[in-house]
Write a structure and sequence with these properties.
The chain has 149 residues and is of the alpha+beta class. The protein has one domain: Muramoyl-pentapeptide Carboxypeptidase, domain 2 (2-Layer Sandwich). It is 46% helix and 20% strand. The protein contains six helices and four strands; from the N terminus they run H-H-H-E-E-H-H-H-E-E. A hairpin with a 3-residue loop joins strand 1 and strand 2. Helix 2 runs parallel beside helix 6.
């Protein structure tokens, strides 16, 4: 088929990009594991690397940062379950990523993949926020809270 007549729908592009983004971040873990490095430290490295790009969120509050973190998760394939809070404290709950198929393909466990949640620590710290996360079944809740002055 002539490529000039080939078109892609926005839905096709979004689905492909979501798969690519999710796979790329899982490859960070595979690469770290193959080099004998801590998976959580590899995730923190990603966080430290991207932290400067989050500076536009400085001073905008915990909810803005929680929303951005949730959006990142959704762009990798997660579903947003809950987002609430205010400038002082906010939580975002996402679910469904990585899938069992993703984990099997990359030979990762859920515990391995959970190491990725450490990446928001350096980002939050740089923005003057405390960060914590917890897993409940297939859901992960990320919490951001303003540090006391």
């Amino acid at each position: 088929m002539d490529a000039t007549h080939e078109t892609f729908t926005a839905e096709e592009i979004c689905a492909q990009a979501k798969g690519n983004a999710g796979n790329a971040i899982l490859l960070v873990l595979v690469s770290a594991r193959e080099r004998g490095e801590s998976l959580a430290e590899a995730a923190r490295f990603v966080g430290r690397t991207f932290a400067p790009s989050w500076d536009e969120g400085r001073g905008k509050g915990a909810l803005v940062i929680a929303r951005a973190a949730a959006l990142n998760a959704v762009t990798c394939g997660a579903q947003l379950r809950r987002l609430d809070g205010d400038v002082r404290r906010a939580e975002a709950t996402v679910a469904g990523w990585p899938s069992e198929q993703d984990l099997a393909y990359f030979r990762l466990t859920q515990e391995d993949a959970d190491a990725l949640n450490a990446l928001y620590g350096p980002i939050a710290e740089g923005l003057g926020l405390h960060y914590a996360w917890r897993r409940d079944g297939d859901q992960v809740t990320m919490s951001f809270e303003a540090m006391e002055s």
